[in-house]
Every structure is written in structure tokens, then in C-alpha cells.
Specification:
- The protein is of the alpha+beta class.
- It is about 20% helix and about 25% strand.
- A hairpin with a 6-residue loop joins strand 7 and strand 8.
- The longest helix is centred in the first third of the chain and has 12 residues.
- It is globular, with a radius of gyration of 18 Å.
């Protein structure tokens, strides 16, 4: 969560307030991540710096990559250009596919594009009754536009929903991962903002940031019997 609001649950940690307290000064958010997503979030130490970075995001001069653990064996690479609406309606469960969907409302759709490449395929052994053997893929996704839940919706549209995605994914497998970890009952989406490249506003130097998956993400990967080293960020 970037910053607190009236809807923020009591005790929920907000990144803006956490950074402000650690640094002892105000910080200014540049962009956001979906709340279930881990990884890199940019803040400016001044409003001027933050505004300059926001301008880079607005004009698509920032290069971002995400790592996602998805269901199925995805193609080696591809470009998804399915148009997306700005917002969608309440999520519903499609019993024929077991994948949650969000019906498009009357608002117009907009062009959207996500490219991806497959980094690895896995076939973990599920130890949950009623769950058939499963294929998983580690995918690197790059959004070229900025639509709501774009990567999540685009990967679902090609039949590879992100594991742990409670809005657009397959709850049979989402629930199975939670059941496998009886100790912590961990429930989280396997999407990590792993790489960002931008220009430093004052010097124009090229800045590259990399972020490996967090410990909770890694614990689920280990639970599935997948070597964590396969998820190291290399660019």
C-alpha cells in the first residue's frame, strides 16, 4: 500500500509513512503497484523530482519488467495486444474454466500491449486431493501501456493466469497453495516488479533498479519444490 486512506484497515503498514519515518523527511510517490504485487516502487525526495519522474512514466520513457509465476506452459515469447477497459465490474467465477473474470462495463476499451518471454517451465507435484498435476511457467512481462491490472488481465486472456491472483486467476490452485502451507496459510499473488530503468531527473544519468522476489514469494516457490535460484533477477 502506497499511503493510508479512510479505507485503510487498522494496523496496515503504508509505504509512504514508513519511508517518511525512516528518512525523517517527506517523500513523494511517483507510481503505484497493485496491492498484491511486490517489488520496486519509486518515490521522490522532493516534489520537483517526483513530478519529473511522473513525466517519464506518462511519456513511456520508463522501462519496467515484472516476473510472474503463471499456470500452464506458456509460449517462448509473445505480444498481447487485447484492448482493455479502464475498469471492470465485480469479479465472478466461471465454473467451466475455474478462472475468475471481471465483466467489462459500458466504459470504452483502450489499446493495451504487453510483451512477455518465458524464462522457465515447471511441473510441481501437488499434494492436494482433487488437484491434477499442474504445469507452471516463470514469465517476464513488460507492459507498454498502463491499463488497470494490465499484466494480470493480459496473461489471463491467453490462458495463463498468475498463481495467487484472486481477481483474475484460478481459485482451485490459489486455494491449493494456501492449503499446502498449513503453518502460515500464506495467500499472495506471484507477481513481482523486478526491474525499472529511468533517467535521473537532475543529471540525466541512466538508473537501473533490480529487485528479487521477497521472502514470502520465495517461501511459496520453495513450497512448490521449485529452486529459488531460478527466480534471481538478471538483466
Amino acid at each position: 500500500m502506497v499511503h493510508r486512506s479512510d479505507a485503510t484497515p487498522a494496523g496496515e503498514v503504508a509505504l509512504l509513512q514508513l519511508l517518511r519515518d525512516q528518512l525523517g523527511q517527506h517523500v513523494y510517490p511517483v507510481h503505484r503497484l497493485d496491492q498484491p504485487t511486490s517489488g520496486i516502487v519509486l518515490y521522490g525526495l522532493t516534489s520537483k523530482t517526483a513530478a519529473a519522474l511522473v513525466d517519464q512514466f506518462t511519456h513511456r520513457r520508463v522501462h519496467k519488467c515484472y516476473q510472474a509465476l503463471v499456470l500452464g506452459h506458456s509460449s517462448p515469447s509473445g505480444v498481447i495486444s487485447t484492448p482493455l477497459s479502464a475498469t471492470e465490474g465485480p469479479a465472478s467465477q466461471d465454473n467451466s474454466t475455474h478462472i475468475r473474470s471481471t465483466p467489462i462495463q459500458s466504459n470504452p476499451v483502450r489499446q493495451a500491449q504487453t510483451s512477455y518471454q518465458t524464462l522457465a517451465h515447471f511441473e510441481p507435484e501437488w499434494k492436494i486431493r482433487g488437484i491434477e498435476p499442474c504445469q507452471l511457467s516463470l514469465v517476464e512481462a513488460t507492459p507498454h501501456t498502463g491499463r488497470w491490472h494490465q499484466i494480470r488481465r493480459h496473461l489471463t486472456s491467453i490462458g495463463h493466469p498468475i498463481l495467487g491472483d484472486r481477481r483474475h486467476g484460478d481459485d482451485r490452485y490459489n486455494d491449493a497453495v494456501v492449503s499446502m502451507n498449513q503453518e502460515t496459510r500464506t495467500d499472495r499473488m506471484m507477481l513481482n516488479a523486478s526491474y525499472v530503468q529511468f533517467r535521473q531527473p537532475r543529471t540525466d544519468n541512466l538508473i537501473e533498479l533490480r529487485c528479487d522476489p521477497d521472502l514470502t514469494y520465495q517461501s511459496i516457490v520453495e513450497l512448490l519444490g521449485i529452486p529459488v535460484t531460478r527466480f534471481d533477477v538478471i538483466y
